[in-house]
Amino acid sequence: MRRTRPLKAALFATVATFIAPAAFAQTAATPAPPAPAAPAAAPDAPAQPQTVAYWMNNAQTPDVRAKQALAAMTLDEKLTLVTGFADGGGLDKVSDDVVSPAIKADVAAHAIKGAAGYVPGIDRLRIPAQWQTDASIGVRVEGLPRTALPSSLATAASFDPTISEAGGKMIGWEARNSGFNMMLAGGANLAREPRNGRNFEYVGEDPYLAGQMAGALIRGIESNHIASTMKHFAVNDQESLRTTVDDQISEKAMRQSDLLAFEMAMEQGNPLSVMCSYNLVGGAWACENEYLLKSTLKQQWDFKGFVMSDWGAVHSTDKAANAGLDQLTGLPCCGDHISHFGPDLKAAVAAGTVSQARLDDMVERILYAMFASGSYDEPVKADDSKIDFKTDGDIAQTAVENSLVLLKNTGNLLPLTGVKSVAVIGSHADKGVLSGGGSSSVTPVGGNPVTDGPTSWPGPVRYLPSSPVDALKAELPNATIGYTSGDDIAAAAAAAKASDVAIVFVNKWNGEGFDARLELDGNQDALVAAVVAANPKTIVVVESGGAVLMPWADKTPAILEAFYPGARGGPAIARILTGKVNPSGHLPITFPASDAQLARAEVPGFGQKDDSAMVKVDYNVDGAAIGYKWYDVKNYKPLFAFGHGLSYTTFQVSKLKATLDGGDLVVSGIVTNTGATQGKAVAQVYLSPHDWKAAGWEAPKRLVAFQKVDLAPGASAPFSQRVDSRLLATYNTATQGWVVADGQYRVMLGTASDELPQKTDVTLHATTWGDAKQ
Ligand code: BGC
User: Fold this and answer.
1) CB 492 within 8 A of CB 523
2) Of 361, 603, 612, 686, which one is least surrounded by beta carbons within 10 A?
């Protein structure tokens, strides 16, 4: 539900003084705006003369204010709001006919250097500028230290939307106090392609989990009265040839997978903007894709905010504007035709190929986002003194401590107790933890402690200064903790042999703009094998963007998946390894046993630059059967299944019940901590039609409910959830609605997709709903 901002009487009083007609006239550089239509008088609003800028009255709804501000704008002012710039770099080379000297001067004076985007405001009408910052793990301004959350994929492993929301609240606060009123955060693309270089920026392979987690992040960010941008819409599931890859996928499959994740994230988070992606879908670029932007997002989902392009993702004027793109961003980024939404749009409106009504709608949506977010009434201001890096670091630490996934723990090697000596090996664990590359990479507080990696885009390869070795020393004060780089395998094996236990850190650097194979790079597989051979008490900690292959998994007793663990990764890893924190993360993606299990032998265009060729990619191969669904269809046994995650205690699920309440499926059960340690379990409920093919499903089962519960030893907690009906249904493209097939369904409860001991059956009756709006 769309939130309405509370009336702030005090603030309105200040504004009312400020907009006295004399002051207004004094600052007007152009003739006074046409008097807006008199607003419906709010009961407690002071009487206003006709010349007052009514949209400043925050007693009115955002819709009304947007309409009033729009009515006061000239054509050029409207065009100003629909074109965004990067940080000002390169604009001097653009002709004045395309970007006026006044706008260039504005960008030069007000854009934040090193930030993602800037859209000039309209001083005459008191419409503020839009300051846009990346991204989902924290504020990214090159060179400006800010707090980095764990990667979004890591946070998804918490299976706890409250963790995601708290993270969003923190980074949104840092954004507001860094001078930004818009955060380009809320990545909701599904991990359809495990080799996608940006999976770490997203929230896993399941639409329901992804929708909950991305939505919660957006909700947290927007609680700071700034806007958040759900992205990259849509089916932007690989980076190779990302601007020319044409995704072929049926509407039904898309609605049940990629689009369902976005739809649910939108409902949960209420983003005020959406970023369309680089790729094509069904032959049309996402930023000029009428099906995606107009029919689905705006008409069917009733999205009220605005669509901004990804940086350099616009290829036309009329087509893009008429398909639903509202703002072209990031000029002069990426070879965009600079005038698409500048002089070309002005000409198109004059010629009638883009209607005045459509331009007005574009502008009204942008204004709506400013009013609805609250950033209009509470303008942002850079103020470092308002950022408490200690508190924000603590929030990042809570997030990661709820997210790391213990994949294996044979013989209860972990937690480490009573060890006298530990050989830590590899991945610069003496200095910090790895983070992902590209536009989401945050400049860490304390600087990058490892500066010998590649620096070119999407680099620099960044470590966050949070040393696992230092943290282990703090947690195990009586043990000798040594560090060996791992470059020399023999030396690492010798160090491991001479210690009680060995901890090998391995990593995989992923980033925007490239996909990567699932093998670890360099000598890391050989390193693990040699260390495990030298000391059977070896733990492997993996810092990776997503799934990696682990040819050594069988022989390695303990494996902790840390993904990119963020600003406090070091202490979180140490506290989990030593048992101060009981691991509770569960995999939001499947870890394949081998490449042979993937839907595509190769990423189409793998390794090619993003615009070097047009290539079609057939996503109908997997369709909506992404991740664990694909493994179920194929009957493959992965290395580690979706939802898997161990704890230092044990849990039991019981009393699973499935009932129908007014046509809704309600599932409930009990989780009990049967071990001796406090711990958090994730109850997971999956649904399976008796005959999944006859029901039209993409795969035998779907995740339909999950809940994380914190339990003392011996304690039990009940849970009960109403299942979103779309998770019971298939999408009918003829009626543009959802259909539940009549029949028997199996409900399964457990703590991983491959560990579902409780089962019960329920009969669902045929239902249809949600036919398209006319
Ligand atoms: C990325 C977006 C990002 C934008 C602005 C693009 O290259 O795909 O995710 O928000 O740049 O930095």
Assistant:
1) no
2) 612
**Beta-sheet strand order (sheet of 651-661):** 651-661, 664-673, 716-722
131 - beta bridge partners?
A: 118
239 lines ligand 1 (CB under 6 A): no
Say what the pLDDT of residue 52 is.
Answer: 54
Backbone angles phi, psi at 233, to 5 degrees: -90, 105
If you measure from the C-alpha of residue 275 to the centroid of ligand 1, how many angstroms do you get, rounded to a whole number?
9
**305 alpha carbon – ligand 1 mean position (Å):** 19
DSSP 8-state assignment for residue 40: P
Helices (H) and strands (E) in the chain, counts: 20, 30
Whose tokens are 């991983």? That residue is 752
Residue written as token pair 């980024």: 333
Task: Determine the Cα–Cα distance for residues 135 and 151; give it in Å rounded to an integer.
Answer: 11
Q: How far is the CA of 711 from the centre of ligand 1 (A)?
A: 41
| Residues forming beta bridges with residue 315, ordered by sequence position | none
Looking at ligand 1, which residue's alpha carbon is closest to its atom 6? 311
Residue 308 beta carbon below 6 angstroms from any ligand 1 atom: no
For residue 87, which amino acid is it?
D
CB 104 within 8 A of CB 67: no
**Residues 121, 313: Cα–Cα separation, whole Å:** 23
At residue 626, what are phi and psi to the nearest 5 degrees?
A: -95, 145
**Residue 488 and residue 490: Cα distance in Å, rounded?**
6
Cα distances (Å, whole numbers) of residue 134 to 129, 139, 187, 564:
17, 6, 11, 17
The 3-class secondary structure across 480-513, one letter per residue, is EEEEECCCCHHHHHHHHHCCCEEEEEEEECCECC
Handedness of CA 616, 620, 623, 626 (dihedral sign): negative
Cβ pair 328, 309 in contact under 8 A: yes
Mean pLDDT value across residues 267-285: 98
Residue 124: pLDDT over 50: yes
Token code pair at residue 681: 């379990």
Q: What is the mean pLDDT of the chain?
A: 92
Spacing, Cα 385 to ligand 1 middle (Å):
28
172: enclosing H helix or E strand? helix 161-176
Burial class (CB in 10 A: 0-12, 13-18, 19+), 140: buried
Residue 772 has pLDDT above 70, yes or no: no
Residue 745 Cα distances to 56, 661, 686, 701, 721, angstroms: 54, 16, 10, 10, 17
Query: In this structure, are residues 665 and 740 in contact, taking their beta carbons and an 8 Å threshold?
Result: no
pTM of the predicted protein model: 0.94
> Does 285 sit in the ligand 1 pocket, CB within 6 Å?
no
User: Tokens representing 307?
Assistant: 């669509």
701: closest CA among 715, 683, 686, 716? 686
Q: Give the chain's radius of gyration (CA, Å).
A: 27
Using a 6 Å cutoff on CB, does residue 439 contact ligand 1? yes
The two three-digit tokens of residue 271, written as one number: 């983003």
Q: Which residue in the block uniquely carries the two structure tokens 């907690």? A: 717
The amino acid present at 744, given as its one-letter code, is: Q
Q: Which two tokens stand for residue 722?
A: 């109403």
Q: Is the CB of 311 under 6 A from ligand 1?
A: yes
* pLDDT for 610: 80
Question: Is the pLDDT reported for residue 512 higher than 50?
Answer: yes
